[in-house]
UniProtKB/TrEMBL annotation:
InterPro entries: Methyltransf_25, SAM-dependent_MTases_sf. GO terms for molecular function: methyltransferase activity. Gene3D superfamilies: Vaccinia Virus protein VP39 (3.40.50.150). SUPFAM superfamilies: S-adenosyl-L-methionine-dependent methyltransferases. The keyword Transferase applies. Residues 58-152 form the Methyltransferase domain. PANTHER family: METHYLTRANSFERASE, UBIQUINONE BIOSYNTHESIS O-METHYLTRANSFERASE, MITOCHONDRIAL. This is Methyltransferase domain-containing protein. Pfam families: Methyltransf_25. It comes from the Bacteria. It comes from Posidoniimonas polymericola. Transmembrane segments: none annotated.
Length: 231
């Protein structure tokens, strides 16, 4: 399947707020169903054990309303490793909502801030810098720039979790988005995201071009990959 990068409706700054919130609610259900947080926690646990860390500082890039960051911060990793999670996003509205939801959940240590990941270096360093469902928004040159920015802020590892561009992935996105969400934004953007996604091999090549040799991908449900690069 040829890659076709098309703007997604959710990225439109003029999108009505009610449609925005309905889309985020649908994405929340899809993320829960896909179990991405479980795969990330497993990889974070492995990294912490490998480096004998009792605490892991993590940044979730392009965090949206903060669902993934809050899920990761909800409890310690295997072995009692404590997670300190920050999130950043280019959208002030998304960051405001993410912080409100975290505070409401009692996750006062989870911080969110506005940042354009492609425009400037991250203001802090972390053990692990990760993003989920963000790379497929990038052109190839933007993808390379993103990897460089993430690596520059990562003491231990960079994790990128995203969709696999494939016919099966397209069918799953088309079907799953309609089953799990009533949002027309999600119905449109899910399949569009798959068409714009990189294959695991392409993602590894982008990482290598960015100066991150030895990145590796693990495939997981539902038609996603988790790319890991360790510093």
């Amino acid at each position: 399947m040829q890659r076709v990068l098309t703007p997604e409706l959710l990225d439109d700054p003029a999108l009505d707020e009610s449609l925005h919130q309905a889309a985020y609610a649908g994405l929340r259900r899809i993320n829960t169903w896909s179990r991405t947080a479980s795969y990330l926690r497993r990889e974070l646990s492995r990294i912490a054990a490998h480096r004998s860390l009792t605490e892991l500082r993590v940044l979730d890039v392009a965090c949206g309303s903060g669902d993934m960051a809050r899920s990761l911060a909800a409890r310690p990793l295997a072995g009692g490793v404590r997670l300190e999670v920050d999130g950043c996003d280019i959208s002030p509205a998304a960051v405001e909502q993410a912080q409100q939801l975290a505070d409401r959940a009692g996750q006062t240590g989870t911080r969110f801030y506005v940042h354009d990941a492609l425009a400037a270096p991250f203001p802090h360093r972390y053990d692990v810098v990760l993003c989920t469902l963000f790379l497929h928004h990038m052109t190839e040159s933007q993808g390379v720039a993103l990897f460089r920015q993430m690596a520059a802020a990562a003491e231990a590892a960079v994790l990128v979790d995203d969709l696999i561009r494939s016919r099966i992935g397209y069918w799953l996105a088309w079907t799953g988005c309609r089953i799990l969400s009533r949002s027309t934004i999600v119905h449109n953007d899910g399949p569009v995201s798959v068409r714009g996604a990189f294959t695991p091999e392409e993602a590894v090549a982008l990482a290598a071009e960015a100066g991150l040799p030895g990145a590796r991908c693990k495939l997981h449900w539902p038609q996603r990959y988790l790319l890991t690069w360790e510093a």
